[in-house]
Specification:
The complex is a heterodimer of chains A (about 325) and B (about 270).
Chain A lengths: L30 H23 L6 H5 L3 H33 L3 H16 L2 H10 L6 E4 L3 E4 H4 L2 H27 L2 H9 L4 H31 L11 H12 L2 H30 L11 H9 L12
Antiparallel strand pairs in A: 1-2
Chain B lengths: L18 E10 L2 E11 L4 E5 L6 H8 L7 E6 L2 E2 L2 E4 L2 E4 L2 H8 L2 E4 L11 H11 L5 H14 L15 H13 L5 E5 L7 H16 L3 E5 L3 H7 L2 E6 L2 E6 L1 H6 L4 H10 L1
Parallel strand pairs in B: 3-10, 3-11, 8-9, 9-10
Antiparallel strand pairs in B: 1-2, 1-4, 4-5, 6-7, 11-12
The chains are: A mainly alpha (about 325), B alpha/beta (about 270).
The structure holds adenosine-5'-triphosphate and magnesium ion.
Chain lengths: ~325, ~270
């Protein structure tokens, strides 16, 4: 951590101390670090050589990177990730508020929901949604809608319900922790000003809870992106499914799996960057000074940050 | 002196006492905290409340704006019962919305400030007028700026609470309460979380407010403030009012043993 220390004590004007000589000393040599670096690099080189000499058709990867089927799969993966997270977040907030409710029925229903969905594997839940057609022949929401179950429960809907409802259980716990982290004095101050329960929650409590909620939610989004590859269980055409199909049809199975991994990496990297800026936004007011963004830091360094003092006080 | 913010309406409309407590009791579970409080606060009065820790001062203050519900007795603010409506001799509990509406007229200042950390000083002050009274942003900002000026913090409008000293935060908190144009202000040990050198600034703002005719109930350990500004003073111990009177009388010539021993410790 670098700390600004140059804004401190001006020497008294009457007795200017001589500017001290910069210390010249021979730095400690870290031989261990050099050895470790060499060993790691050697292992890496072996790994690269193994893959390079393996029977991998590397050219296929850039060639298929923007293949229409692959892109369709990628689009579906992103779509199901975003929509499942929307269901997860909305459901999570509702469940968290239900958990805090004074009504024992609502709070225990919320507890039960979280217990069930966190206690069973999402893969099993996806299969359950997919196979519910075996027990229900029709869907019949009395006056509004009636259809064959199999027409209604498309792979898309199975994937969405499976991932979204499961996510809601996790988001509920994250939201609950966030709401509990806000000091009770905040609610009291808002109530004392005449704000209603709803307004207090919306304007005062939730924005502060966000600081606690956003970082783990960012992780959940990244996790969801990867977990969404399980929707293969309900035959939804996602990135992984597309990569497998293309790979099988063109005889480049492993290559397409690597390509899928590349796309997942690109997507998670973009999400991580987004998360950084989101966290920064919700941290406002919580510390005296926001940390600089990487861009600002680079600019500051270019703009001649040579007056930075070398030593850092803590 | 800047313009007054205490108008004739804010000094009470009922013509009677601003706060009237008759035999007020409050328990938390089996713990009996307030054991029959009787007192009256007149409009424009500065009413000081002192007493040892745990005697129920904060609890009583919180009952006045219904942050706590009383268990027995009657408590009214400006002629209206706190938390209830009386009709044909029966009490009806107020809905949350009605409770909130009554609280608009009562400002409260907390020991630990409780400013909203995600809003700047000026936004803290603007929040309730906009959200509760439906005031326009521009009008709220104008008033907030005036209030900040009044508490001597015109240049700190854009600071977040974490960028303010304790004394500055408490003055913003006072301005925030004043923005709702309350007819009664409750202060719960407003200076006891502050470094000694910051206490004076906050007390000055409160003195100003008293001079403008605001009705104030002040829980405090600042006996100097009570003596100088207070119109009456109550000594509470163990959930009852032990002694009351003019601050100079009670502080200078306490009648009860308990008052004497408490004062000998704090003076
Ligand atoms: N929500 C609560 N639940 C249970 N007990 C409470 C609650 N609030 C206060 N009490 C108890 O009521 C008693 C009086 O508390 P109160 O905060 O009113 O004291 P006080 O006179 O303000 O003291 P201090 O000078 O330390 O602020 C204390 O014994 C406290 O433990
Ligand atoms: Mg107290």
């Amino acid at each position: 951590m670098s700390v600004d220390v140059d804004k401190s004590a001006q020497p008294p004007a009457d007795a200017p101390p001589p500017h001290p000589e910069p210390i010249k000393a021979i730095p400690v040599r870290h031989y261990g670090r050099w050895v470790a670096a060499v060993v790691v690099l050697a292992l890496l080189a072996l790994l690269v050589r193994a893959f390079a000499s393996g029977n991998v058709n590397w050219d296929a990867i850039p060639q298929y990177l923007f293949n229409t089927d692959i892109l369709k799969g990628l689009r579906n993966t992103l779509l199901i990730t975003v929509l499942s997270m929307v269901i997860g977040v909305v459901g999570g907030v509702i469940l968290a508020v239900m958990r805090q409710s004074k009504n024992p029925v609502t709070s225990s229903v919320a507890w039960f929901y979280v217990w069930f969905f966190r206690g069973t594997p999402v893969y099993v839940q996806l299969f359950l949604w997919f196979n519910l057609g075996l027990v229900f022949q029709y869907i019949d929401i009395m006056p509004i809608y009636k259809d064959e179950w199999s027409d209604f429960m498309t792979p898309f809907l199975c994937a969405l319900l499976g991932l979204g409802l499961n996510e809601a259980a996790y988001m509920a716990e994250i939201c609950r922790a966030g709401l509990n982290a806000v000091d009770e004095g905040q609610t009291e101050a808002a109530h004392a000003l005449g704000m209603s329960h709803g307004k207090t929650l919306r304007r005062i409590v939730v924005p502060q809870a966000m600081r606690v909620i956003v970082p783990p939610t960012g992780n959940e989004v990244i996790n969801m992106l990867k977990t969404s590859s399980l929707v293969i269980a309900v035959q939804y055409y996602d990135l992984l499914q597309a990569a497998q199909n293309v790979g099988r049809d063109s005889g480049v199975v492993v290559e397409m799996l690597i390509l899928a991994a590349v796309w997942y990496l690109i997507a998670t990297t973009v999400l991580s960057i987004g998360q950084y800026y989101l966290e920064r936004y919700y941290a406002r007011g919580s510390s005296r000074q926001l940390p600089l963004t990487p861009l600002q830091r680079a600019k500051a360094r270019l703009a001649g940050g040579f007056n930075r003092s070398a030593g850092g006080a803590g | 002196m800047t313009s007054k913010i205490v108008t004739s309406e804010t000094a009470g409309t009922s013509g009677g006492p601003m706060v009237k407590a008759e035999n007020v009791h409050k328990s938390f579970g089996s713990a009996h905290i307030l054991k029959g409080i009787d007192l009256e606060v007149a409009p424009k009065e500065v009413f000081c409340l002192i007493g040892p820790s745990g005697s129920g001062k904060s609890t009583f203050l919180r009952c006045i704006n219904h942050l706590e519900k009383i268990n027995a007795g009657r408590l009214s603010v400006d002629g209206e019962l706190v938390g209830y409506r009386e009709h044909n001799g029966k009490l009806y509990e107020l809905r949350d919305r009605e409770v909130a509406a009554r609280r608009r007229d009562i400002g409260m200042v907390f020991q630990r400030f409780n400013l909203f950390p995600h809003m700047t000083a000026v936004e803290n002050i603007m929040e309730a007028p906009i959200q509760v009274k439906g005031e326009s942003k521009a009008a709220a900002r104008e008033r907030a700026t005036k209030l900040l000026d009044r508490v001597g913090l015109a240049d700190k409008a854009g600071n977040y609470p974490s960028q303010l000293s304790g004394g500055q935060q408490q003055r913003v908190a006072i301005a925030r309460a004043l923005a709702m144009e309350p007819k009664l202000m409750l202060f719960d040990e407003p200076t006891s979380a502050l470094d000694p050198e910051l206490v004076g600034d906050v007390l000055d703002v409160m003195k100003d407010l008293a001079a403008d005719g605001m009705t104030m109930i002040v829980v405090t350990h600042e006996m100097g403030f009570a003596r100088e500004v207070g119109d009456s003073l109550v000594f509470m111990d163990d959930g009852v009012v032990v002694e009351s009177g003019h601050p100079r009388e009670v502080l200078g010539n306490p009648q009860h043993e308990r008052t004497k021993s408490f004062l000998s410790k704090v003076l």
